[in-house]
Amino acid sequence: MKNNFDDQEIGQPRLLLQSVTKEFPGCLANDSVDLRIEPGEIHALLGENGAGKSTLVKMIYGILKPDSGTMIWEGNKVQVANPAHARDLGIGMVFQHFSLFEALTVKENIALGMTNPPAMDQLEQQILEVETRYGLPLDPNRAVHSLSVGEKQRIEIVRCLLQDPSLLIMDEPTSVLTPQEAETLFVTLRQLSEEGCSILYISHKLDEVRQLCQSATILRHGCNVGNCIPANETPASMAALMIGEEFEVAQRGEHPEAGPVTLEIRSLSRKSEQSFGIDLHDINLEVHSGELMGIAGVAGNGQAELLELLSGEVLSAADEILIGGESIGHRGSTKRRQQGLCFVPEERLGHGSVPDMSLNDNSLLSGFVSQPFLNKGFIATETVRKFTRQVIDLFDVRCPGQDALAGSLSGGNLQKFIVGREILQQPKVLVVAQPTWGVDAGAAALIHRALLQLAAEGAAVLVVSQDLDELLTISHRIAAICGGSMSESYDINEVSAEDVGLLMTGVSLDKSSTKPGPAQGALQ
Amino acid sequence: MSFSLVARPQPSKLMVYLSPLLALILTLFSGFLMFSLMGIDGLDALYAFFILPISDSYGFSELLVKAIPLILIGVGLSIGFKANVWNIGAEGQLVMGAVAAGGVALFAYESESIWVLPAMMIAGILGGMAWGAVPAWLKTRFNANEILTSLMLTYVAGLFLSFLVHGPWRDPEGFNFPESRLFSESALLPIILEDTRLHIGMIIALLVVATIWILLSKTLIGFQVKVVGSAPRAARFAGFKEKGLIWFSLLLGGGLAGLAGMIEVSGPIGQLVPQVSPGYGFTAIIVAFVGRLHPLGVTIAGLLLALSYLGGETLQIEMGLPQAVTGVFQGMLLFFLLACDVLIKFRINMTQKASKTESVKQEASA
Fold first, then answer.
1. What ipTM was reported for this prediction?
2. Which of B71, B119, B121, B211 is the most exposed place for a label (fewest CB within 10 A)?
3. Closest chain B residue by Cα to residue A14
4. Which residues from A are below 8 Å from B213, CB to CB?
5. Is residue B33 part of a domain?
6. Number of domains in chain B
C-alpha cells in the first residue's frame, strides 16, 4: 500500500470538499456539502436513502460532475474528469451493485477493470499477494458466477487495492453480506486504515458505523446536518440527526397462538430459466394464520424465483403451493387473489405500480379482483376513487392528491400506498418482498406496524427481506434462503442474529450444541 | 450560444398536444421551402395543397370520404400501439377485408336482399381479422416479430387480390380488364349527402370512434391495454394476460382495417380492382401517432391526412406536379412529429458560452 502518511504536512486532509452542490431535474441532491477526510481515517457518510450519499461519492469518483463547489485532494484543487482520472489520483471505489461479468474468471474481471492491466500471470501473482496480505482468500481462476456475493465483493476490493489507493470508497458494502462476512470485511478495512489508506464508508447501519468508523458526516435531504465521532454517540442520537423526526417504532407482540396453516409450500423445486439464475431445491414452508414469517437471505439466492412462483407470474405444479389447504400452484395471479392472496413486489415502479398512471388507476391494477371495482364490465370510477382515498388516509400517503401519478411520489410514500392497497383488500395471505427497501425510517415504521397489525387480525404474512435487522424486529418466525434451498424455520426467540447469519450461508443450526464463533474461524 | 437538451423532471403534458401542431407548422414551412427551391411559388402551392381542395362543399365531402378509412384503421391501430403491439400490416388487412366483402357481393350478385350489405360488412371484418390473426398467432406461438410478419403479409394480400381480379373473379363482360363486375345496387353503401360520394360509412366511423373511446376509458380491457403498454411487469403482477391482449389488439386492428376495406369497395369504388387503397393502411399509422393514440385525436388527424391525398391530386391537376407530393408531405409530418416528441421528455436549454469555469485543473498524481 502506498503510505504517504509520513510526508504529509500535519493537518492536511486527504480529501476536502467545500460547498459541493449538485442538482438533478426537480431534485437538489447535494446542497453545499462539506466533507473532510483525514489520512488513514475510516470516515462514515451517514444518511437515509435519498439523502444524497451516492451522489456525493459519485462526484468524488468522477462519475458525476458537481454544479459548484471545490474538491481538494491532498492539498491540490482538482476536478475529477472521470473514474480513470480518479483512479490515477489514488481513489478507488467499491460499488453497492457489482459490475462483473458472470461468465469470466476472477482474474479476467480484475484485468477488465484496470486502466493498464499487466500480463496475465504477473497479474495473478499480484492478486495473490494482495489477497494474502489482506486475508481475502479467492482463487483468481474461478468463474465469477460460482462465487457468493461476499466473494464477488472481494473481487471489487482486490481490484481497487491493486491500484494502490489512498482513499477507498465503500458504498453500503454490508447490505449484501451476512453478519459473519461483514465482520471479515471490517478486519480488512481496519488493516487498510492502519496502513494509511483513508476509507469513506457509506452506510445507514448505525451499529456498524460505531464499531468501525473514527468520524462521521451526516447528510439529510442533501444537506450536511452534522459531523460526529460515532464512538461518542448512541445509535439513537445519530438516528435523530439522520432522520430529523420522531417516529413510533413497530413492536412485535408475543408470538401468537399458532392458527391453522394458511400458506403452504410443499417440496417446491424449479430449474431456473435464466443462465445464471438460481434453481430452487425442495422448498418446504408453512405460514400460520396470525403470524409474520420472515425469510432472510442475501440477494440472488433464489428469492426472486420463489417470489415469482408465489405471486403466480410463474406457475408450478398444483400442489406445490397451497392457500388455506387448496392447491393453487397452477393458478394465475387472478385466481390466487380470489383465494385471498395479496402480493407486494420488490420493485415499486413498473412492477407494483404503473409509474405514469394515477393512484386511482393503480388501485384498480391489483384491486379489481377482490373489490367491487367493475360494474357490468365498466369501471366503477367512484368506488375506485373512494378506495384510493381510504388508502391515502389510512396509510398517510403524502401526495398532491389521488390523481397524482404514481411515479411522482417519493419511494416511501409510494411503498406506503402499495402496501396499503394490498392490506385494505383484507388478504388471508400477504407476501411482501423488501417492504422497506429504500424507504425513509418514518415510512418503514408505519409499514412494519401495518404488517404486524394485519397478522394480529389473523392473516398469514410472509416477508422476504435482505435486511436482517428488519426481520429480527418484526418476524415471529424466521428462516433463511441460500442457494435456492430454504432452511428450517425457527421461533424468533430461539435464534440470535449470528444464528440467522449462519442460516443465510447455508449452514444448518444444531441447536443442541454450543455456538461456535464461525466468523473468526473464517479469517485466520 | 449553445443548445442542449435537458431532461424534464416530468414529461410535459402540454408538449404532448403541442408537438403535432409544431410538426404541422414545420411541415408547412419545409413544404414552402421545397416548392420555392423547385422554382414554384411556395404560397400558391401550399394554397393548392391545403385550402383549394376543401374550398367547396363537394371538396369537403371528398375529404370526409377519404378520412373514413383512415379514421377507422387509425383508431384500431392506436389500441395496438398503446399495448406495444406494432401492427404495420393494416394495408394487407384492409385488402383482405375488401376481398372477403367483395366475394360476398359477387356471390350475391343480382340479389336485392337488404342483408347483402350487413353480410359484406361481417365478411369484411372477418377477412381483416383473419389476416391480423396470422401475426398474432406467430407472435404468441413463436415470438415472431409482428412488425415483420404483418408487413410481409400485406404483400401477400395484395398479390392475392391481384390474382383474383386477373383470374377467377374477373368481370366476364369486362374486355379482359383486371376488374371484377360492378357491384349491384344492393351491395353499395347508401349516399348520405346528395350529389356527393359521401356515404353511410361516415356514420359507422363515428360510431366506432365513440365505442373505442368508451372501451379505452371506461372498461377493464381498455385499462389492460394501457397497463401492458406502459408497464408490462405491472400487467403481469396484476394478472393481465399478455398473449390475450396481443390477440385482442391484432384482431381489433385487423377487423377495423377489414371494415375499412369493405367500405372502400362498396362505397367509392363499387367493385374489386387491383388497387383498392392508395396506402390508407400505412397512412393510418401516421394518423394514429399524430392523433396521439386517442380516438378524438385520431379523428382530427384522419381529416388532416385525408387532406394530404386531396392536396396531392389538386397539385397534380393545377400545377402538374407529381402525386408523390402526397407521400412527401405525409413523410415530413411523421418525421417532424417524431422529432418534436423529444420535447415531451426534454426541454431545450440555451446557454451563453460558459466562461466562468475555473481553469485550475490540477493533474495531481500524488
1. 0.83
2. B211
3. B366
4. none
5. no
6. 1
